[in-house]
Specification:
Length: 196
Amino acid sequence: MNGNRLIFATGNPNKIREVHELLEGIFEVGGLQDIGCPFDLPETSPTIEGNAQQKARYVFENYGVDCFSEDTGLEIEALNGEPGVNSAHFAGEGRNAQDNMDLVLRKMAGEANRKARFYTVIALILNGEEHLFEGIAEGTIRHVPSGIGGFGYDPIFQPNGFEHTFAELTKQEKNEISHRGQAVRKLVKFLTSLNH
Ligand code: IMP
């Protein structure tokens, strides 16, 4: 690792906040601004894995630094896996998280099968080699949004084994069980194993 620093290839401040909390004191994580890279990274793959790889490869190929990126999708069983890789722009370009949630709830109106999962892939490029780490959080889609924490689809996602949505949990509680938390812990385990 260059000077023990990894660049997190994302422009999403919510992801930066969550991931920094998980890596604090373990690794020094830099952002795209530290290498003068624009925040809009290419994300044109038809899969979550592909988008994670594409963003990390872009940064490595153009800036030559060790880096990782992350891509996440909400996969709803009754919607055949939608919004999936289109989670960010489900309601259309320029629409926000509220629009995306509203569209999910409209499409799920009258649907009894509420099963859904968040799927995250982290792509790490270290010394030119690529490694992938996955995280999955299983749960259900609520009928009505609830909670103000988290971001994105959190107010309508209730993780299995909980009676609250992700948006009603504390940051620490969400990190302990979330898709992103799981993938980051696998990343940490891999990186720490290299030092032993
Ligand atoms: P992307 O990985 O940046 O493409 O984000 C995909 C979409 O999923 C965005 O609309 C995010 O707001 C949403 N999203 C990503 N992670 C989470 C999460 O942990 N909770 C809720 N929504 C999320």
